[in-house]
Structure formats: structure tokens, C-alpha cells
Design goal:
Length: about 130
């Protein structure tokens, strides 16, 4: 699993430039939270930017996660999280990604069980239709 920070400039936002110390801290935070899903994720792109709320004129931090998952024909998963605190925005994005990965793995397990069920049904039908 690779993690990249602020690789692209998003429109109408101000990118937050972070130091190498912050990069190592956030990388450790992300890998520790996603340690059970290391083999399911190929690449995570994290973009941090300021967002200005036009209603109350407050500045908040937006964290955009784009995760590429393993497997053929997998579309990247994208999440956004906003908060006043940069760490809380990242943690909220990580939690959304974890929920998506749980659903992804569960769908794969259900798919295998479904294939096994169909195989067993066909096997039983052959036994009933062609008695020995």
C-alpha cells in the first residue's frame, strides 16, 4: 500500500502544504488504522485543502481520499471529509474508507458463497434427474 499526499490541485480550493514530519505522522496514522486491509489497497491519494463556508464565513479543512483497490476492473473509491481539525478530517476519511473495504470484502465473500450454493444446487439436480 502506497500513500501519496497532495498530488493534484483541486479547483476552487487552497491546498494545504504539509511538512515531511506531518507526512510521516499521517502515513503512520493511516497504515495503523488500515493494517487489516493492506493487501486490498494498492494506492491511497490524500489531498488536503481549505474550504471556505459561504454561509457562516468559517474556514474548514477538506480531506479527499482516493483509494485504488486490488482486483480486475476496480474503480477508485473516493471520499471527502471536512472538519476544523486536520487530524479529525483524516480520521473521518479513514473510517469511511474502512466501511467501504468491509463492504467490498463482504461482497467478495458472499460471491464465493453464492457460487458454492449454485454448484451444490446443480449437483443435487443432477443426482435427482439422473438416478443411478
Amino acid at each position: 500500500m502506497r500513500i501519496q499526499f497532495n498530488t493534484t490541485q483541486l479547483t476552487f480550493n487552497q491546498t494545504i502544504h504539509i511538512t515531511e514530519k506531518d507526512v510521516t505522522y499521517f502515513t503512520g496514522l493511516i497504515t495503523s488504522r488500515l493494517e487489516h486491509y493492506i493487501y486490498n489497497i494498492i494506492l491511497i491519494k490524500v489531498h488536503l485543502s481549505y474550504v471556505f463556508n459561504t454561509v457562516n464565513r468559517l474556514k474548514s479543512i477538506r480531506c479527499v481520499f482516493i483509494a485504488n483497490l486490488e482486483g480486475k476492473n476496480q474503480q477508485p473509491v473516493r471520499f471527502e471529509a471536512c472538519n476544523d481539525n486536520i487530524v479529525l478530517a483524516i480520521l473521518y476519511g479513514i473510517d469511511q474508507l474502512k466501511l467501504s473495504l468491509i463492504r467490498y470484502k463482504k461482497a467478495g465473500e458472499d460471491g464465493l458463497q453464492h457460487e458454492e450454493r449454485i454448484f451444490n444446487i446443480r449437483k443435487r439436480l443432477k443426482q435427482v434427474a439422473l438416478p443411478t
